[in-house]
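Data card: per-record layout.
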Amino acid sequence: MKKICGLILAFLFIFLISAQSTYAYNGGVLNQHEGWKSRNTSDIAALTPCSNSTLAITDNNEETFLGLTNSQDCGSVVFFTLQEVKELNSFILNTSSIADMRIAFWTTDKKLISYVDYKGSVESNEKQNFDKASGVKYVTVGYRGGGSGPNVYEFNVFATNYVPEPEPAENRAILVIEMVNGLEKEYDLPINDINAFLNWYDSRSAGTGSSRFGIDKYLNNKGPFTSRKDYVIFDKILTFSVDEYSTNK
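The structure for this 249-residue chain is written out next.
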């Protein structure tokens, strides 16, 4: 019973970590797309780079961010060039403050199509729909207020024909090792780690290879360590079992 409860808690923990790291940004037009810092939010200057490019707000990592500057300074706007012309109808903006924020859409010849202004009445970090913008080649997100702008953590836009990408399935297995002293060790591992263990065991059974094998503890890596491993000794293993499963629902 304790073993079953532990597995359920481990699966929940893995699910929560995964959900926090990807949220709903994956699959959008700007996923992992490079943006360029610029200035102004209402004319063609918004599409003229004034500094280095950045991936900080499209990397699906809420721990990275870009601090926007005063609306008159370089870095008050980030613009993106789409790989192909799109029709867009929604976006997600995760920012420390939505007041005086503008998301704008531009044509191939850099003419403004439409924009959405935030005045602080709509909650940040939720998917927002808008009247579809057709023929979009450039997208800008920027700050139009005075003083320092907010931190932008993630930003993405979605096409009208957007279909969420399924989460890739991961093959995993529960490895249970019973030691000669009666101690039982259990590990939830990626299938590559399982295969590495089996290859090591077969090699050692044939008289070659190391007498020990290191098993990565992954999410159980608690403390100020770069990694933690359990080492099992070949001649201390009585038996073991491997139960494979897939994370694909």
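Known properties of this structure: The chain has two helices and 13 strands. The longest strand covers residues 77-95.

See the next section for split statistics.
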